[in-house]
Amino acid sequence: MTHSSALAIINNNSVEAKQSVIEQIRKAKELVTEGRYLIVVFEAPSDWGSHLPIEGLVISETLQGIHDRTSDWEFFGNGVIRLYSSKTLRYSKAFQWTVVRRAGEKPYSRKGEFEATQLKENQVPVSDKVFTRDVANNVWHLKGDNFRERLIARFKTLLTWHDEDFIVLDGGRKRKVSYDLRGPLSLREDLVGVPQKIEYYWKSGDVLF
Predict the structure, then answer these.
(1) What is this structure's pTM?
(2) Which domains does the chain have, with CATH numbers?
(3) Are 124 and 81 in contact (CB under 8 A)?
(4) Torsional sign, CA 110, 8, 65, 46
């Protein structure tokens, strides 16, 4: 059985592009097999102007309306990708992502199909600081010049097995991303958030925490 997930990157979120965006979502969801994922990524608005509610369109095209939800799809998660200049590491823009899953057996149910060496190929480096501080959260921090490649690698590694199809529709253009052998998710190119302690004071000057 072929298992397939789809990632749709929406490049235009203007109100005028509504029908085009709906068509891209519909095209992408038809590529998703039972139990697998539809991921939609789109640029987050940076002003107070009128923009398409793309996450709402994803939900209405899969889970349907709030009063007549379908059992064919389920909500999986959403988040934000903050992009930074590779040279200065200054913040530039943000993208949002929304993930829904088609009903069916979840990917981990296939674990018994693989040998130990194949399971090792599919391991995710959960002890890496990039994973604990970034990948495992719903706000990611990536360099802007290669963010498409990085988000594809992350979603494919996190949500699919090495032998499953991962199809990317970038602005409606289709390309299939698959690997015969997949090693651990490389995180060396990604940014690591470093927390800094900030002291908070009462008006009296005493440290609050």
Answers:
(1) 0.88
(2) 4-177 (3.40.50.150)
(3) no
(4) positive
